Amino acid sequence: MSRSILIAGLLAATFSTGFAPAPAMAEGVSFDASWATQRFSLFSSNKYGFKGNSMSIASDGSVSLAYARVKPGLWAARSAKWSWAVAQSVPVTDLGKKGGDDRNASLYFVFLPQAEAEALGAKADVRKLLTSTSARVLTYVWGDNRKRGTILASPYLGSRGKTVLLRPAGTGSFSESVNLAADYKRAFGGTPGALVGLAVSADSDDTKTAILASLSGLSLN
Questions:
Q1: Which CATH architecture has domain 3-220?
Q2: Pair 104, 169: CB distance under 8 Å
Q3: C-alpha pair distances (Å), 126 with each of 120, 130, 176
Q4: Which residues of the chain have a pLDDT value below 50?
């Protein structure tokens, strides 16, 4: 199964649940045992460290995904804040093209309509979920070198995913605050459904370089 199919299927399968979204309250996201990882190669994978409110990321010519469900009480969240830092960076790549699209870090926000989430169920087979056209994924990325806020079509998720560029490839430490509802409208039109899942990835396999990064203080509101 290709990396694009794995990403699309894994996100849909992981974040399908049967709870109705409640009004969101600001709450920090813990990087704890609720997070799981998915490798895309038998021979290489990123290394993630989960500790309280922070996640460390090490990538050496590799790519993989860490993911978790959002608590039902935060399904109505429409904004997010976090800090991230990169001590070792991949070079500039074109994140609008499949292949060669390495990036220091990506933070995924996965939305599903409530009715679709209930219908799919948490235990549905990944391959069956690939036919769903209802999932929408906003991905905020540290990579590329275009203007902040640029929205690109996802080369892996098709019409279901959009990439929002926040930081160009390089090192540093920054705090981010994003309006999920506004970015969703720019990316897809309309209003988002329930925010049912989060994922983090780093990608250095195409350029065969290395990444040392961290993400902390993630909160939803």
A1: Sandwich (2.60)
A2: yes
A3: 10, 7, 32
A4: 1-2, 4-5, 16-24, 121-131
